[in-house]
Amino acid sequence: MISKMTKYDFVLYAGQSEDFIEHLRELGLVDITTTGWEPQENDRQLISDIESRLKAKEALEAFRSSENFIESAGTTTNVFEKYTSASQKIAELRSEIARMTKIVGEWSAWGDFEVETIKSLASQGITLRFFTTQKSTFDANAEAWNEQFNLSVINEQGGMVYFVVVAEPNTEVVLDAMEAKLPQCDARKAAAEVEGLEKSISEFDTTLSQCAMSVAEIEAEIIALKERLQGVKIEATATHEADGLLLVMEGWAEKETCDKVDALLEEYPNVVYIKSDPTPEDDTPVKLKNNWFSRIFEMVGNMYALPKYGTMDLTPFFAPFYMLFFGICLNDAGYGLILLLLGLGLLAKSKEPMMKRAAWFATMCSAATVAVGLFCGSFFGMSLKEFFPEIPFFDFQNKFFSWALAIGLLQILFGMVLKIVLITKTVGFKYALSSVGWFLVVAGACLSVGLPMLNEAWVIPFFTASSPAFFGVLGLGAVLMLFFNSPGKNPFVNLGSGLWDTYNNITGILSDVLSYIRLFAIGLSGGVLALVFNSLAAGFVPEGANIVVRILVMLPILLIGHGINLFMSTISSFVHPMRLTFVEFYKNAGFEMSMRAFEPLKKEQYQTNNNNNKN
Fold first, then answer.
1. What angle do CA 72, 74, 78 make, to 5 degrees?
2. Residue 611 pLDDT
């Protein structure tokens, strides 16, 4: 559900703004509106300072987990400046290492030589030119080249010939070969220099370790800069009145905590505030407030958008469907068991709320996969029917196509019901009559035609495709959707609008229902691939092989094959149910989005444990 909000309009002296914002930040319950803020040049520098420190903090935390971290290095001050200076010097050293490594790679095939000696010969009128070419090209042209130039082969490696031409200065040497430019040093010296540069980098480990141990200083700077940025945003978006003497700001608080906000405002001097309920025209921030189960699936909904304030949070309603769709797409009890163990392991190790929620999400979806896999009798691509013939497993391959469409229709109809409830709640039931009409038509067709297609025994005697009850429901639905789509307007205008909506809705519903075929297709493809890898592994076993040979031959193929299939199928099982939720279900449920989350001003806390062990 969406938490109820209260709107505040504050009027205060401009000189009080910083102190007032600080009091709100300490309270931690008020979201100040800064919509429409555009950063100026100074603001961009402030943002850049925050981002650079965030990157520094992330890099130092990563360094603390590396083998180069020295725990006994101690702490330091001016952490960001020291880290930035060290990082720049390390970057320069790494650039030089890359250059020298390139020299080593390009000139190691030429053997050991002194660049100074070659330069000395050049000063005496003897120039050495270095060339490389393919061996076939060299063999075809070696005799002619030797007649024209003084040529000496240095090395043959990897199908290439490395040779030197001795020539006089400024002599033009034209060969079907690539000439290499003499480096500043030979490969041996370059390799030694690389070793020295790497040793120079390691000398910064102490400085980086001290910075990593003192990263709390950077965290404090980040918090201070973020608070400054908040103040800049509020100051820039607030309304200045009375020649800049007064400041008018808009704020929001949860209705259940607004008493605490009122208490602060009553005590704070020289502040006038107006308290009111949000209107549809307001850009009201949104905070979701769900039970334990629904909160797990908020991370899925947040990937799309938050619901608009005053509408309906669909998270509790799509959560069971998402679990079911994930299980159908993966559709293997063995795969589900692996994911379940991983989810439980992550759940045991997770301490942060977001990671804990992600672990529960993985656990719930994998549990659904195990249930669906057992229902369909699939375990690592093997049919459990062969081992338990007395159990009536569901025939996924031959029967689920029509069931996928039925599940899709069920979710679409459920979405229509939610849309009717939402419209009734927000603007009144008469504005939902057209949606009621569409629901009657679609639900009537499903009951009279769809049910017998799933199972011949599920015919409703008094509600068949030729029964008066069916035509009555169809007629009532048609009247509602054609003449009540815009209450209060001319009936002929409604009829024209209703006919146009009819075409769009029919094609839309057909497209939506057909989209659910992906549940069948993805579940079937994963099962087929699992079966293929099982057959492939069995096919490589020599005839008459004992159990040890069978395991040695089959196990690598099964591990690699099922590993690939599990990875790809898990991604599909995560993405496609999300697509069905955001496109088909959200559309039919009348979802309206909001891009503004409730983010109250608050004092950020930082805590770095300097005694953490290296991972």
1. 150
2. 41
Q: Which of 543, 535, 540, 536 is nearest to 553 (CA)?
A: 540
CA distance 158 to 142: 18
Q: What are the two backbone dihedrals, phi and then psi, of residue 378, each rounded to the nearest 5 degrees?
A: -120, 130
- Looking at residue 492, its pLDDT comes to 66
CA 145/CA 173 separation, integer angstroms: 10
Contact 34, 234 (CB under 8 A): yes
Local structure of residue 582 (DSSP, 8 states): I
- Assess contact for 509 and 412: CB atoms under 8 A: yes
Distance in angstroms between the alpha carbons of the first and the last residue of the chain? 40
Instruction: For the chain, give the number of residues.
Output: 615
**What is the reported pTM?**
0.76
Return the pLDDT at 352.
Answer: 84
Q: Are strands 246-254 and 5-13 parallel, antiparallel or unpaired?
A: antiparallel
Q: Rounding to the nearest 10 degrees, give the CA dihedral for residues 534, 537, 539, 541.
A: -140
Would you state the pLDDT for residue 179? Answer: 83
H/E stretch holding 162 reads strand 160-167
Ranges of residues in the chain with a pLDDT under 70 are: 184-185, 488-494, 605-615
Are 366 and 333 spatial neighbours (Cβ–Cβ below 8 Å)? Answer: no
pLDDT at position 605:
67
State how far the Cα of 55 lies from the Cα of 498, in Å rounded to an integer. Answer: 56
Residue 346: CA atoms inside 13 Å, Cβ hemisphere, count? 20
Q: What residue type is assigned to position 131 of the chain?
A: F
Q: Which residues partner with 377 through β-bridges?
A: none
User: Phi and psi of 68, rounded to 5°?
Assistant: -80, -10
Q: Tell me which residue of 306, 297, 325 sits closest to 576, measured CA to CA.
A: 325
Backbone angles phi, psi at 454, to 5 degrees: -75, -45
- Nearest-angstrom CA–CA distance, 506 and 494: 18
> What's the token pair of residue 160?
């290439």
271-276 vs 5-13, strand pairing mode: antiparallel
C-alpha closest to that of 512 among 582, 438, 421, 437:
582
**464: phi then psi, degrees, rounded to nearest 5:** -100, 175
On whether the CB atoms of residues 115 and 183 are closer than 8 A, the answer is yes
Distance CA 248, CA 16 (A): 12
Crossing angle of the two packed helices 353-376 and 333-349, in degrees rounded to 10: 160
At 134, give phi and psi (nearest 5°).
-70, 150
DSSP string, 406-473: HHHHHHHHHHHHHHHHHHHHHT-GGGGHHHHHHHHHHHHHIIIIIHHHH-GGG--TTSSTTSHHHHHH
pLDDT at 39 (0 to 100): 82
At 558, the amino acid letter reads L
**3 state DSSP class of 131:** strand
- The pLDDT, as a whole number, for residue 491 is 67
What sign does the dihedral 107-110-116-118 (CA atoms) show? negative
